[in-house]
Amino acid sequence: MANARRVLVHPDRVRTMFARMREDLDDLRSRHLRELSDLRRELDQVRANYADLRAVVLARHRTEAELADLRRQRALVEAWAGARDPAAPLQ
């Protein structure tokens, strides 16, 4: 009675199951790597779109500031060019 245990699963079957599980894990790993690659590519595209949008918004802000400065300069030129009525009260 050295080893009276009953073998429930043959060792070859266990090796086959482990080999199949290893293949499944390899398949999952490759699918995850492909998905990660796709997501990184999409993130890079989003970052590029964000950079383009940011450049457009900054250009618009610079243009609006320049326009406000030009309007201020025009108002000053119009004020200097206008004749003042000495009888009118100062504002």
Describe what this molecule looks like in 3D:
The protein is built from 1 helix and no strands. It has one helix at 11-81. It is rod-shaped. The protein starts with 10 loop residues before the first helix and ends in a 10-residue tail after the last helix. The model has no long low-confidence stretch (mean pLDDT 91).
Shape: rod-shaped
List the helices and strands in order. H
Number of helices: 1
Residues in β-strands, percent = under 5%
Cα distance spanning the termini: 117 Å
Summarize the structure.
The protein is mostly helical. The chain is built from 1 helix and no strands.
List key phrases describing it.
91 residues, mainly alpha
Element layout with pairings:
Elements: H1 11-81
